[in-house]
Amino acid sequence: MKYVQELHLAHCKNHSFRFNHQKMSNNKLLIITFLLLTSSFAFNDIVAQETIFETDIQLKTGLENKRDVLPVVLDDQSVTLFLLDNAEITSMILDKDFQKTDEYTIPRPEATYDNLLGQSVDGDQYNIFFANRRKNQFYVHEFNMAEKTNRGRLLDIKLKKEKYFESISYQNKFYLLTIKKFTSIMVVYEFTGSQLNAKKEIDLTEFEESNIYLSNLYTEFLSGDGSLTQSLYAPKIDLRTPAPIQQTADPAKLFVSGNKLTMTIDNDLQYTKIIKVDLGTYEHSIEAIKNEPLLCKESVSTSANSFLWESTLFQVKVCKSKLRISVKRLGNEETLAEYVAEREEGIQFKNGPLQQEGSNSIYGQGTEKELNTKQFLRKMSNSQISVSAYEQNEELILKVGGYKELRGNYGNVGTFNTGSTISTPYGTVTTPPSHTYNPAMAGYSTMTTSRSVYFNVKLDVETLQQIEGEVAQTAFDKIRNFEKAKTSSMVNETVFRVGDVYVYGYYHKADKKYVLKGFEDDVLAE
Questions:
Q1: Residue 297: HSE in the Cβ half-sphere, 13 Å Cα cutoff
Q2: Which of 124, 311, 325, 441 is the most buried (most CB within 10 A)?
Q3: Are the C-beta atoms of residues 267 and 211 closer than 8 Å to each other?
Q4: Helix (H) or strand (E) holding 323
Q5: What are phi and psi of 249, to 5 degrees?
């Protein structure tokens, strides 16, 4: 296919050599031949990745910032893809075998409403929700796939003393979350279909009583430098997909599991604050779980963070000489497991090497190297630290580490669009990443230009005790390898999960096709 040929040409250019055969030694010839063969095999693995769907479609070129992709997965049985172009939205229904069963194109809302928030589904009717750039006005576009009808309308929601926080699509409903300015009061707008059927205020002021900094939820979720032009932001974590370090290093995180909305906040070294809201009953709870002291000589450089996997909390604390991971259950202060490492003794509980990806320089991106314990602890303690958990092959894989964003005006040389930087009278402001309507894509898109250090720990999913063996490659790892070989014609990517398959989609400008590739986690032989 043409896009495979284009990938191959780009690959050959990247690995081409110019040399004089008469002057080159046999050893050099052997080395170059080996490198070419090795990279060729790796490339063939990439381009041979299974194409599970492709279709001819012509999107407007030169307007990539106006395009977006919204995948809607219904009970792992069908997928509806919405391809948003400058002036149109094309919807395609794919069955469980990724065969297209229906297609419908409608006008896109006016440019004022260019922020995609999410969707609700009511039978054959799909409702896509948008916001203006300030996210204080909202618009819904309704269209019926069976009747081939559509209409759009402005929602009667005006945020005056509230600020947009997040949106959630769950069980075919749509939820809009706001926080009242400079308070800990969350407002939830619940939609069934396209109709607002409930507005609930949840008073979480109790959160402030457990916070030694006397802040509130509003200020905790302000991104960047806290200026008045800022947005509220916390990364939305999908436990069904591996969460990258660049996402889980945020001290405030948002987890959606079933009908439970959980926020974790690590804004001091002593406690992890956990706020839970039931989207069915709107009952809530607030809990502060102690993070044990690490007792470092260089206590000024100590950092802490946490990650919630179902009802299990993993807390990490690090300084230049020590590292500790504590495992606790919500509602119970008892420590289920603890893993401690000292600089002189090494990290005995790791499964695999201490790894560094990238460097502090733009020119070091894509590089990898192994570290010793002293190097790792120093670099991790000087980074935004992270711990995350992902269930793979009935095992729980912890990734422990940290990352450091590159400094300087290098432009976007990461994988996907991860937000933007703007100048304001208050200084430089970083806007939150895009793709928050799709947690899998939001997680993948945060793999930006940075230097990260990490190691993996493999745990028994029941006992939470370490088990031996290497960690299998995830589908996300494979997608990253595939994405590294893409060409400039492959744009407007998306990532989502259907059953056990992770789907990577992109528009191929040269061929005028939209393509879906399927990836799965590896399973290690026993």
A1: 4
A2: 441
A3: yes
A4: strand 322-329
A5: -75, -10
For residue 99, which amino acid is it?
Q
Q: Give me the phi and psi of 156, to 5 degrees please.
A: -85, 60
Place of tokens 């999410």: 118
Rounded to a whole number of angstroms, the CA Rg of the chain reads 24
Residue 389, token pair as written in the block: 């958990």
Q: Which residue has the tokens 């780009």?
A: 10
What angle do helix axes 475-484 and 26-47 make, rounded to 10 degrees? 120
Helices vs strands, H then E, count in the chain: 8, 32
Question: pTM higher than 0.70, yes or no?
Answer: yes
Whole-number Cα distances in Å, 170 to 175, 196, 367, 465 = 8, 15, 39, 33
Q: Mean per-residue pLDDT for 396-411?
A: 76
pLDDT tens digit sequence for 157-182:
989 899 999 999 888 899 999 999 99
Split at pLDDT 50, 70, 90, the class of 209 is confident
Element containing residue 453 per DSSP (H, E)? strand 450-460
- Of 18-27, 200-209, 393-402, where does the model show the most confidence? 393-402
Instruction: Please choose, from the candidates 370, 41, 113, the residue with its C-alpha nearest in 3D space to the C-alpha of residue 33.
Output: 41
- Output the furthest CA–CA distance in the chain (Å, rounded): 80
Alpha helices in 434-509, H assignment, sequence order: 439-445, 475-484
Report the DSSP pairing between strands 322-329 and 312-318: antiparallel
Both tokens of 418, joined, read 């991860």
The answer to whether the beta carbons of residues 435 and 416 sit under 8 Å apart is yes
Which residues sit opposite 355 in a β-bridge?
370, 454
Distance in angstroms (rounded) separating the CA atoms of residues 300 and 303: 9
Q: Do the Cβ atoms of 135 and 89 come closer than 8 Å?
A: no
Matching residue, tokens 């300087």 = 408
**CA 165 to CA 259: how far, in whole Å?**
18
Rounded distance, CA 486 to CA 510, Å? 13
State whether residue 374 is helix, strand or coil: helix
Q: What is the mean pLDDT of residues 419-431?
A: 33
| Burial (CB count within 10 angstroms: exposed 0-12, middle 13-18, buried 19+), residue 317 | buried
Query: What's the number of CA atoms in the CB half-sphere (13 Å) around residue 99?
Result: 2
CB-CB neighbours of 214 under 10 Å: 8
Candidates 350, 266, 351, 254; CA nearest to 302 is: 266
Structure tokens at 277: 């809201």
The CB-side HSE value for 321 (13 A sphere, CA atoms) comes to 8
Where helices occur in 202-332 by DSSP H, the ranges are 206-209, 217-220, 245-248
- The answer to whether the CB of 444 falls within 8 A of the CB of 457 is no
Contacts for 405 with CB less than 8 Å, ≥ 6 apart: 448, 449, 450
How far apart, in whole angstroms, are the C-alpha atoms of residue 125 and residue 253? 32
**Residue 403 contacts residue 388 (beta carbons within 8 Å):** no
Count of CB atoms within 10 A of residue 293's CB? 12
Amino acid, single-letter form, for residue 211: N
* DSSP-derived pairing of the beta strands 252-257 and 236-237: parallel
9: phi then psi, degrees, rounded to nearest 5: -65, -45
